[in-house]
Amino acid sequence: MSGFLSAYSIQNWLESCPQGYLEDTQYGHAPGQTEPALVLDNPTLLADTIRTTVQLVVGERCALAASSGLINAAPDHASKAFLATQTLDEARHVEIFTQRLYDLGVKKSELESTLAEHANPNLVKFAEVLLEKVDKGDFIAGVVGQNIVLEGMAFSVFEMLQAAVSGVNPKFANTLSGTIADERRHVGFGENRIGSLIKQHPERKADVEKMQKEMAYHMLATFSTQFAQSGSAMQEGQRMAQAAEGNGAEAPAKWHGADLATATPEEMEGVLSDTVLKEFKVRLGRIGIEYQTPAAP
Amino acid sequence: MTDPLEDARSPRDRAARQRFVLDDTGFDEVPKKYRRFYRKWGGVNDALARNEVLCPVCKVVIRSTRELRPGDRVYCMPCMSRLVVSVGEGGRLEALVAY
Ligand SMILES: [Fe+2]
Ligand SMILES: [Fe+2]
Ligand SMILES: [Zn+2]
Q: What is the pLDDT of residues A182-223, one digit of tens each?
């Protein structure tokens, strides 16, 4: 077994994560940090923030189901141990984003109905393609779908969100940086473990490529409907961030060349889609999978 | 050994290299004694020093106390990848994943 697998121990995870960057956090951020009035007091922004957070919970619930489901399909013990730590990471992500919904005013009794009302149907389809592989116990397709496609997408989305809120919402920026740190391990496992497995099982490539194409299609459809819904809120957020900047708050950063302070929803959708697809191509290429371009949704 | 440079081409080669003093940049995603060996990447305009290489998997900058050269094997602790340093576009050092 390759040496890198020895890093996938519970001890390693304990030292870097709960005893490391998560020490002294509450629901992923510093105790006492709250959502800014900028969001809470503005109905358009609040509704949009809730809608965005719902997609994060839906995505993380899928990651939780996938990583836990893959434990029993894993061919070796080090992978099982790693997936056990990932399962806890994903359960934590579900919890912290759910807590954010509560912080935004969603009542606990209305959680499931809020999720059902706002979950993007394309994101639900994206999850279904992956979970079908997991349910069949297909380890290779499951890990590519989860740790490369889903995580690759999450990685870019979290980075973009973090760049957008870094100046105006330290609580959420904090929550995201712990999540990004977790995702680094998850993408690392995906590439390293599957890179060697694909070499041993080249006959699985076609099947995995088909799944990736389907998932990419549903992902692009998710982005396009999300940004179409967020148009007015994005502009309102930009106006308010500019006003806050006048009061000393930091200006939102640039992300992959897009100026987050002025970009239109269409521009942001374009930049995000391009970034994620480019990442897919490179990541899949490294493990010997040829990226398949999906039809435009 | 704590330095991410695991395997220079030869011990003599390693000794002849420029040394670097690393400061803690606040990167907290690995246990304390390893923190100075990694830093956050600032995007495409972030110029890397001669002892630094970007992890293509998790986009963290890996830093060694020695200058890095093509052929070196380095370890990225944040994503647990083993990498080989190579020369990329424009002569910039790049890391390739060693499966
Ligand atoms: Fe996650
Ligand atoms: Fe993850
Ligand atoms: Zn890395």
A: 999 999 999 988 888 888 999 999 999 999 999 999 999 999
For the segment A62-108, what is each residue's pLDDT rounded down to a tens digit? 999 999 999 999 999 999 999 999 999 999 999 999 999 999 999 99
Residue A70 is assigned to a structural domain of this protein: yes
CA–CA separation, B70 and A258 (whole Å): 33
Give the 3-state DSSP-derived string for chain B, with helices as H, strands as E and coil as C: CCCCEEECCCHHHHHCCCECCCCCCCCCCCCHHHHHHEEECCCCCCCCCCCEEECCCCCEEEECCECCCCCCEEEECCCCEEEEEEECHHHCEEEEECC
Domain that holds residue A221: 2-286
Do A245 and A251 meet the contact criterion of CB atoms below 8 Å apart?
yes
CATH of the domain at A133: 1.10.620.20
Residue A29: inside a domain: yes
- The whole-number pLDDT of residue A2 equals 40
**Rounded (10°) angle between helices A121-135 and A205-246:** 140
CB contact under 8 A, B60 and A184: yes
Question: Could you say which of B30, B78, B99 has the minimum Cβ distance to residue A192?
Answer: B99
What pTM, to 2 d.p., does this model score? 0.91
Q: Is A199 exposed, middle or buried (0-12, 13-18, 19+ CB in 10 A)?
A: exposed
B97/A195 Cβ within 8 A? yes
ipTM comes to: 0.87
> How many domains does chain A fold into?
1
Radius of gyration of chain A from Cα atoms?
A: 19
Residue count (chain A): 297
- Tell which of A13, A16, A256 to mutate to test the B interface (max B CBs under 10 Å): A16
- Residue A292 maps to a domain: no
Closest-CA residue to A180 (of B79, B55, B81, B75): B79
Cβ of B99 within 8 Å of Cβ of A7? The answer is no
* Residue A277 maps to a domain: yes
Q: How far is residue A272's CA from residue A255's CA, in Å, rounded to a whole number?
A: 9
